[in-house]
Structure formats: C-alpha cells, structure tokens
Amino acid sequence: MVSKLYEQEHRIRFSECDPAGIVFYPQYFVMFNDLMEAWIDSMTPEGFHNMIASKRVGMPSVHIEAEFKSISRMGDDVVMSLGVERIGNSSLKLLLRCIGKDGVLRMQVRQTVVTTSLETHLGIPIPDFLRNPMQEYVIAQPESSKA
C-alpha cells in the first residue's frame, strides 16, 4: 500500500494575520479544520456536510499538540498537508502541516479526533465510509520536522 498526503495550496490572507502581519496562531487551527473538511469532501461522495447533517457523525478533537517553527506572513503561499498517523477503533491521529513554498516548515499539529454520534455525543466506531478511504493516507512513519 502506498500512502499519500492530502494537500492543498493556500495563500495567507489579511484576515488570518495579527497587526504584525504574521499568522495569528489560532488561525492555523481554522485552516487545519478547513483542510480536514476538504479531505472528507474528497473521500466521500456526500462530503463533510452530509456526514454532519444526514449521517449525524461528528469528528471532535480530543487532543492537539502544536509546534510553531517559522512565521507565515500575509501573502505567503503555503501548502497545507494532512496525513494519518494512526487509525484506531473510534479515534484517528492526524499529522497536519503548513509548509512554505520555500520548503520551510511553518507549523505542524498532531491532532487526535474521535468519531461520535451527534445524537448521543458518545464515541462510535469509525464508519466504513470513512475508514476505507482513510487507509490511503496512513503514513508509515511521520516525516522528520524541518528546522
């Protein structure tokens, strides 16, 4: 099995920056959430919206580790990437990265999410409609961080 990363190009916007003109750190979490939604959209015909609204499956975060390596400025072009470090019964450990077009790692997050019923708000096994396509994104070993 060949693993791959889910990637999207992104230009850092004015609305994502603080008065110093660099990304205000909470905005990375918004960007990574948008990336996860787009990833789910790419894997399932019905998309993220249907997963929430119709299937009533949620994917809340239960643990996040963040490393800020280098600043991103308004106007920078970056690549946002997502890989799966581990798939459990009801949890998923993701490696999310923001890398500048210059190859410099700007920021990375290791995030654990769980699949839940949006009716009971209890954990449920990862549904097959997610588990099966997620297998393509399992990374054998996390890439080493760039300094």
TrEMBL record:
It comes from the Bacteria. It holds the Pfam family 4HBT_2. GO terms for molecular function: hydrolase activity. SUPFAM superfamilies: Thioesterase/thiol ester dehydrase-isomerase. The keyword Hydrolase applies. Signal peptide: none annotated. This is Thioesterase family protein. The lineage of its organism: Bacteria, Pseudomonadati, Pseudomonadota, Betaproteobacteria, Burkholderiales.
